Request: fold
Amino acid sequence: MQYDVIVVGAGNAALCAALMAHENGAKVLILESAPKSARGGNSFFSGGWMRFTHDGAEDLGSTFPELALTGKEDFDVLRYPDNEFFDDMASITEYRGDPELTSLVVKESRKAMEWLHAKGIRLVFTFSKQGLKHNKRYQVGGGSIAVSGGGAGLVEKLFENVEKTGIEISYQTRAIELLGIPGSCVTGVKVRNSKGEILDINAHSVVLASGGFGASAEKRTRYLGPGWDLAKLRGSEYNLGDGIDMALAFGAKSSGHWSGSHAVAWDASAPTSGDRNRGNEFSRNAYTMGIMVNKNAERFLDEGVDYSAITYGKIGTEIMRQPDSMAYQIFDSKVLDILDPNYNGRQVSKITAQSVEELAKKLDLDPIILAHTIANFNVSVDESKTFDPNCKDGKSTIGLIPKKSNWANRIDEAPYVAFPVTTGLTFTFGGVHVDEKAQIIDTQNRPIQGLFAAGELVGGIFYYSSPSGAGLTAGTVLGRTAGHQAALSVRNNYSQSK
Ligand SMILES: Cc1cc2nc3c(=O)[nH]c(=O)nc-3n(C[C@H](O)[C@H](O)[C@H](O)COP(=O)(O)OP(=O)(O)OC[C@H]3O[C@@H](n4cnc5c(N)ncnc54)[C@H](O)[C@@H]3O)c2cc1C
Reply:
């Protein structure tokens, strides 16, 4: 079997790479380890938020007509220029992200979105995280636009496009090894197919887009640390880190934040991996409106340091550090109606009580310590400031450790409600090093001929956390780059051999 380009994986990055390689004249094969019914990787489970640069309301409305502001008189659309996107990436990654790759993602983000739009992908404004309605007006910034239908909608549309082009997809076919001369050039992929047969498939170029290692309990423990084997997965069970392993065994240089990941507060009774029907329902991102305590009934972080849209990706890691990787989000009746809709789902783990003592008993926490924690919190609240969930209100605690910097509202009105949460792993950050052509670099800093990568398995873009919507955008940008370059390298090969 001989192809121009093999793409490993069938999530957002892979499908973008495959379509782009096809558009540039390549004969493409997609390998997907999951069965068709579980296709789409983490991209399927995602909320579909995508971050891209734009010039404000008029610009958005003229390029993406579904985002025109007709009927949305209470919307303010702020410009989102390159420098702001770059700064958001830099500050959230604590200035560790690879500047060249970050720049590529930022600069190409708009073009990538227009390309998706031309493929029938439609956008919506979305405000499920707190803090976006100021003075009764919605503020659209960098993180408030998502694909219609979420991640499932995105991948279904991409599959529709792939199927229209006639690109072959081989399901239940797991890539297990790269063929060629390690560290020099790739000539194909060894696979195990659905019948258990081991086959060599030849190609001029290979794009690895098979996700991170989040689904491997063993690798989570090895790289993220003790306890991470027990973390719940928010997404796909198939992202076992195969692409990273294959590339490293082939001489690729590793890159990025190997002990880091995006991880959120997640319903403690959620299944161990993503539920395709319930998607993101288990997210518990309204901790900014209350307090979080661990099993010792003690607070352990500043719940209000920033909007949850900024902090949510780090919260799971903080919870992982607590006894039994568990925490309880506690609210009183004053804020119950402003928690996001995920808190009112059908199967939400939720404990209600008429007193703090009763709550402690129901949660099996020490009632004296919980009462002490809440009383200490209440007396330290700055009552000179007014609580306002729609902006960083500066209503903080005074003299309390840990401080709560905003939205410090006394917890003193029954009923008291607690939501047990644990760590929900979104995706991992360690991976392979690529250049601006998405070409994998070897340990001697030379590109490996014909070998490209895109998506979660690329290291060096995210450290500590990622701004909402940046994971999919990075996957689309690098997927498009990888697909284009893979097709070009085929053409160059042909012209050299003539
Ligand atoms: C619940 C959830 C919500 C999220 N929400 C957002 C959001 O709103 N916005 C955002 O930007 N990001 C979000 N993310 C992160 C985002 O989903 C990922 O960053 C992105 O989807 C990664 O895309 P990918 O193509 O690299 O990987 P994936 O989409 O995970 O695709 C990898 C594919 O490779 C396949 N594969 C693995 N190993 C092999 C192998 N050996 N051979 C063949 N195939 C293989 C897998 O089966 C899978 O289909 C979310 C993630 C989750 C889990």
